Every structure is written in structure tokens, then in C-alpha cells.
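sry for the spam today, last one i promise. C-alpha cells for design, 222 residues
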């Protein structure tokens, strides 16, 4: 969605109202791995899902993360789309830190590290974002986990009715009153002294787990 200038405030209000209304109507059909999700409620921690499931993940943010009382954070780029996302997220009570992972990533990494360590936040993470390729996790999420000590808790989400946007990630937007299933997996934990080989192994493992959990969430809808 390309919205700039004077149209941004009105667009942010419209997106916030639409996302809030849709999310409120979603029915949580099944939640598998609730014990693993509880780890996310003990920040610092990261809840990870594929970027295509970002809209569905608001269900967990609204019904599990925000009611727990701890801060929840996201990363938003400095682009117009990032500004729109930031305005919507802040209206929901989500902390927003700015930075670009596609331009070196140093600013983004430092800001996210501060959210985890200084503010002890729960970070909502899409490891294949912000521009893809889809379902290919970037190394930054693994480096952040190693440096901060925060676990990455992987999750897969699926809706029985909805549509896919014509975006790079083919984002899923659930239809009103759709059933949503969530499968949460065992956390991935790294320490600061992990080797490059161990971090690459963890990156590949994160991608495999997100794929498996997404498939599992679809099965839970059956």
C-alpha cells in the first residue's frame, strides 16, 4: 500500500479500524503449543512467524501478548509504508522502533537489541521481511537472538477463509469471523559465543520449523 503525505493520517485510521474489526471477529479455533507461547510472555523474547501471516498474528498480539501487560515491539522501516505501519501499531499500544534491514541493518539491529535488553520487550518478528524473498529467514534474527539471549519462539498461523494480497509475501487477510489455528513450536536459543556455523544451522532450523508449524496450523483447521 503506497500512501504518502497528507493521506497518511486518514489511511492509518482506516487501516487501524479495519484491522481491529477483523481481528476482533476472528475465532481462535485451536492453539497448539500453548506452553511454548507462555515463554513469549516472559520477555525479553521474540515471537516469529512468516511475513505472510503478519495480519493473522495480530490475533495473538491482541488476545495474548498485550493483555499480559508487558511491552510488545515491532520494527518499521523509514519508508511511507513503514510510517503507516508505525501509526497503526502505536494506536494498538505496540512499541515501534524504526530502521531498515535492507540498508546494512545496523540501525535496525541496534534498535531491536535495545527493545529486548533495555525495555525487556516481546518482539514480533517476521524473519523473511521486510522485502523477502518469502519464507527465507535472514541471518539478522539469529544474530539478534545470540547477542540478546532472547529466545525465538516460532509459530505458524492459518485461517480457513480469507484472501491473499498481491504483495511479495502474498499476505493472508482472514475473512470476518474466520477460524484461525495457531501452532507454536519449541524456542530456539543461542548464546553470544555461538559460531558462524551454529548460527547458520539455527537460521535453517528456524525456516524449517516455521514451514512445519504453518503446515500444522492448516491441519488443525481440519
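last one done:
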Amino acid at each position: 500500500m503506497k500512501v504518502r503525505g497528507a493521506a497518511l493520517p486518514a489511511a492509518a485510521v482506516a487501516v487501524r479500524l479495519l484491522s481491529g474489526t477483523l481481528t476482533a471477529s476472528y475465532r481462535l479455533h485451536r492453539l497448539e503449543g500453548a506452553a511454548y507461547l507462555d515463554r513469549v510472555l516472559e520477555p525479553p523474547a521474540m515471537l516469529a512467524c512468516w511475513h505472510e501471516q503478519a495480519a493473522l498474528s495480530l490475533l495473538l498480539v491482541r488476545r495474548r501478548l498485550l493483555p499480559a501487560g508487558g511491552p510488545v515491539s515491532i520494527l518499521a522501516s523509514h519508508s511511507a509504508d513503514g510510517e503507516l505501519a508505525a501509526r497503526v501499531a502505536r494506536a494498538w499500544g505496540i512499541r515501534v522502533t524504526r530502521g531498515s534491514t535492507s540498508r546494512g541493518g545496523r540501525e535496525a539491529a541496534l534498535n531491536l537489541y535495545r527493545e529486548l535488553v533495555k525495555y525487556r520487550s516481546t518482539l514480533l518478528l517476521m524473519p523473511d521481511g521486510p522485502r523477502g524473498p518469502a519464507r527465507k529467514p535472514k541471518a539478522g534474527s539469529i544474530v539478534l537472538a545470540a547477542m540478546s539471549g532472547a529466545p525465538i519462539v516460532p509459530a505458524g498461523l492459518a485461517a480457513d477463509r480469507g484472501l491473499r494480497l498481491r504483495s511479495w509475501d502474498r499476505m493472508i487477510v482472514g475473512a470476518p469471523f474466520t477460524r484461525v489455528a495457531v501452532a507454536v513450536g519449541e524456542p530456539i536459543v543461542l548464546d553470544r559465543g555461538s559460531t558462524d556455523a551454529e548460527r547458520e544451522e539455527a537460521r535453517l532450523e528456524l525456516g524449517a520449523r516455521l514451514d512445519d508449524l504453518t503446515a500444522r496450523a492448516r491441519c488443525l483447521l481440519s
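The first strand starts at residue 27 and ends at 32. ok im logging off now
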